[in-house]
TrEMBL record:
A Pfam family hit: RF-1
Family designation: Belongs to the prokaryotic/mitochondrial release factor family.
PANTHER family the UniProt entry points to: CLASS I PEPTIDE CHAIN RELEASE FACTOR, PEPTIDE CHAIN RELEASE FACTOR 2
InterPro entries, A to Z: Pep_chain_release_fac_I, Pep_chain_release_fac_I_sf, PrfH
Superkingdom of origin: Bacteria
Domain Prokaryotic-type class I peptide chain release factors: start-end pairs: 130-146
Identification of the protein by name: Peptide chain release factor H
Originating species: Kingella pumchi
Stored PROSITE patterns: RF_PROK_I
Length: 219
């Protein structure tokens, strides 16, 4: 479920990270949930603002997430996490399972606005509805919330963080562009893995950061 949170324009000292399990098993989703929490914790400690723009979760953890970092140390925080991450641990879900190494990826999405493109404007369908949650009678009487759907991909976002329908529409386009960029990034990564399986194995064997055990102690 996508949280309805304010979305800020790209700025100096900003980074958007995508956490992906690449359809890995449940153990990878457990690891990804830890990584998301740790990124948010490190960002807070560094004085960088962090927002979870998108999160796909299940009972074990998360399959993917988009995290927006902003502030003067956002770039440093992002660089510490970019790449392949490894968790070395006996499976907490499948006793006696022989596998002990679980991998996920953290990718940085492009900040160039030309690359944050939703394509043909005719492909975007907008729907308006009443905003929910707190806010008094205003949000209940005006259809300020906006849902934007990119029809070719089926990707959809809902934004109600602003009172103005125009402002929510603008935020929706920005978030939709980010999600499309994330889809393109994932597709490119999948194609590269298929075309260069030996290189993909090298990447798995050379992780950026390694964590061990159920306490996720970093090596």
């Amino acid at each position: 479920m996508t949280p309805n949170i304010p979305f800020r324009q790209p700025e100096n000292g900003a980074a958007t990270l995508q956490i992906s399990t690449a359809q890995g098993p449940a153990e990878c989703r457990i690891f990804a949930r830890f990584v998301l929490a740790q990124i948010l914790r490190e960002a807070e400690q560094a004085g960088a603002a962090a927002q979870v723009l998108e999160e796909t979760a299940d009972k074990h953890g998360i399959l993917s997430a988009l995290v927006r970092l902003s502030g003067c140390l956002a770039d440093d925080t992002a660089q510490r996490w970019q790449g392949t991450l490894q968790w070395v641990c006996d499976s907490p879900l499948r006793p006696r399972h022989p596998r002990k190494n679980w991998y996920i990826g953290v990718f940085r999405l492009p900040e160039n606005r030309a690359e944050h493109d939703t394509g043909n404007p005719a492909d975007i369908v907008f729907q308006t509805c009443r905003a929910g949650g707190k806010g008094g009678q205003h949000v209940n009487k005006t259809e300020s919330a906006v849902r934007a759907t990119h029809t070719p991909s089926g990707i959809s976002v809902r934004v109600e963080s602003e009172r103005s329908q125009h402002a929510n529409k603008k935020r929706a386009l920005e978030l939709l562009a980010l999600k499309l960029a994330a889809r393109r990034q994932a597709d490119a990564a999948g194609q590269a893995a298929d075309a260069h399986k030996s290189l993909y194995r090298v990447e798995r064997g050379n992780p950026k950061r390694v964590f061990r055990g159920t306490a996720f102690a970093e090596r």
